[in-house]
Amino acid sequence: FKFPGFSWVPVWPREGMYAHYVVLLGLSFSLCVGFFTRLSACLFLVGFGLIQLMDVTNYLNHYVLVLWFAFWLSLAPSGQVYSVDAWRKKRRAAPLPDGQRASSIPTCWYDIFRFQIASVYVFAAVAKMGSDWLLHGQPMGIWMSTRTHLPVLGPLLALPAMPLVMSWAGFLYDATIVFWLSWKKTRLWAYLTVLAFHGMTSALFDIGMFPG
């Protein structure tokens, strides 16, 4: 099943798909350590985008977020500090006076990535503003019914009111977490809440790479 206008995108044979993912793994590692950062980001953007275009059923909205991150990384000077690129550049450059920094990243790039993350949470809250989610606790109730066998949490998930409680908790989390993360006084606790939220999501629900 192809996206309109992308029927030309090939689907590799089995060995080719394995090789494709191995290349993406290598590019991901290059991005993590900042080795030829922009080039790695550009190649990752193309490689990950091709996987999404191979078949419509590969689509997941969080994969679109990955593509946006790769796009911004292909433009941002993220390899200028704390990276292999910065280390290589420092080795070639003349020594700087004491106290002078070799390079920095403009604040606007931090703001772009913050905005990208914030938009995910805000629109997640907007998507939950409906009777199914806030009045009937669905599809949370369907998802939770498949996890009642879990130890400790299972009996809690089986409680009749729990789907609605979890639905409202998810909505309030998405609607307010950007504010709590932006406020310095609550940032640490908000970040710990983010870790707990995504950890619980990973343990309870199978929705691709989202919890990570």
Concise synopsis of the structure shown:
This protein has 212 residues and is mainly alpha-helical. It has helices at residues 14-33, 37-54, 61-75, 84-92, 107-127, 131-134, 140-145, 153-157, 162-182, 187-204. The chain is built from ten helices and no strands.
Structure in words:
This protein is mainly α and about 210 residues long. The chain is about 65% helix and about 0% strand. The protein contains ten helices and no strands. The model has no long low-confidence stretch (mean pLDDT about 90).
SSE inventory with pairings:
Blueprint: H1 14-33, H2 37-54, H3 61-75, H4 84-92, H5 107-127, H6 131-134, H7 140-145, H8 153-157, H9 162-182, H10 187-204
Helix pairs in contact: 1-2, 2-3, 3-5, 5-9, 9-10
Number of E-type strands: 0
Low-confidence stretches: none
Reading the helices and strands in chain order gives HHHHHHHHHH
Residue share in β-strands? under 5%
Radius of gyration: 21 Å
The helix-and-strand class reads mainly alpha
Q: Terminal Cα separation, in Å?
A: 27 Å
